[in-house]
Amino acid sequence: MRIAIDAMGGDHAPAAQVEAVLSSAAEWPDTEFILVGRAEAIEPLLAGKRHPNVAIEDAKEIIEADDEPVRAVRRKADSSMVVAGRMVKEGRADAMISAGNTGALMAVGLLVVGRLKGIERPGLTSMLPTLDDVGVLVLDLGANMDAKPEQLLQYATMGSIYREKVNGLKKPRVGLLNVGTEAAKGNELTKAAFELLEKAPIHFVGNVEARDVLEGVCDVLVCDGFSGNILLKAMEGTASATFKILREELTSSWKNKLAAAVLKPSFRKVRTKMDYNEYNGAPLLGVNGLVIKGHGSSNARAMKTAIRQARAAIQGGVIAALEGEIRGE
C-alpha cells in the first residue's frame, strides 16, 4: 500500500511528518510512504535515516492556514496538499494525510479527489475517547454546516461501515446527537433524521445527549457540521481547562505537591486517555478515496496515529465497501 503525507501542512511541519514516517517505515515495511512537499526542506531531515520504503514527491507551493480554501486549491496546483490529493485521484497513492488547512483539505477532497457517486455532501469525522476505551466516531464535524436529513442518513451509513471495516465492530451502535433522548425532541432536522434512521438498515439506538457521548452509549454519533464542531471544541476546551485547574491546584502547596507526586502515574494515564494525539486522523467520508485530516498541532506521535488509521482503512477496504453500500450491492 502507498500513503501520501502532506509534509508541509500543520504547526510542526515538516519535522513531525518526517519523524512519523521514519518510525512508521520501520514498523510497517509493507507500506510505501511518500512525503509530499519541498524537497529542500524534507531531505535534510532524512539525512542518514532514509528507508527504502520512503520517497519524496517534490511540491513547491504551500497552502497556508489563513488561505481561502477553494481559491488556494485552484491557484496552488503545485502545493503539497493538492499534489497529494492528485496522487490519490490518479491511483498513485491509496490514501493521503494532511494536518494543514481544514477547509482547503475538504476542497481537495471535493475538487481534486471527487465525491463518491450517490453522496450529496462528504462528512468530516473524528474518534473521541469514551470511558470504555472503545471510542465514538463522530460525523460531521464541520464539512457541512447546513445538513439535510438525507445527508445525516448517509453519515450514519458511512460511519457504521467505517467502524466495522476499520475497528472491527459488528453492528456498530448509531446515535443521533440531540437535546434529549425522546424521539420527539429536537429541531426539524433531527426529527426528520430520526425517522429516516429508524427505518435504515443500521443499528440505530436513538437520540444521544452531549453529556452522555463519553459514556460510550454509541459507536457512531451523527450530527450536522455546525453542532458537531461545537461539540468537539467544547470537549477539547473542557479537557484543557480541567487539566489546567488540576495543575494549578496540585502545585498550590507542598502537601498538594506531595499528593501529586504519589498520584502522578494515575494522572498520566488519564491524560493519555483524553489526549487527542491518541485519536488523531479524521477521514473525510464520502469522497472517492481516503483523505485523512490530522489535527493542526499534530506532533510526530499524532501523525503516526493518523498513519495507523490510514493503514487500517486501506486494509479494511473502506472505499469499496462504501461504494457497494451506496449502489445497494
Structure description:
- There is one protein chain.
- The chain has helices spanning 15-27, 39-46, 69-75, 80-89, 102-113, 149-167, 188-199, 225-250, 254-274, 300-315, 318-327, and strands at 2-6, 32-37, 54-58, 95-98, 123-128, 136-139, 173-177, 203-208, 220-222, 282-285, 290-293.
- It is α/β, with parallel strands linked by helices and 329 residues long.
- The protein has 2 domains: 1-119 and 286-329, Isopropylmalate Dehydrogenase (3-Layer(aba) Sandwich), CATH 3.40.718.10; 125-277, Isopropylmalate Dehydrogenase.
- It is globular.
Set out the fold topology.
Layout: E1 2-6, H1 15-27, E2 32-37, H2 39-46, E3 54-58, H3 69-75, H4 80-89, E4 95-98, H5 102-113, E5 123-128, E6 136-139, H6 149-167, E7 173-177, H7 188-199, E8 203-208, E9 220-222, H8 225-250, H9 254-274, E10 282-285, E11 290-293, H10 300-315, H11 318-327
Parallel strand pairs: 1-2, 1-4, 2-3, 4-11, 6-9, 7-8, 7-9
Antiparallel strand pairs: 5-6, 5-10, 10-11
Helix pairs in contact: 1-10, 3-5, 4-5, 6-7, 6-10, 6-11, 8-9
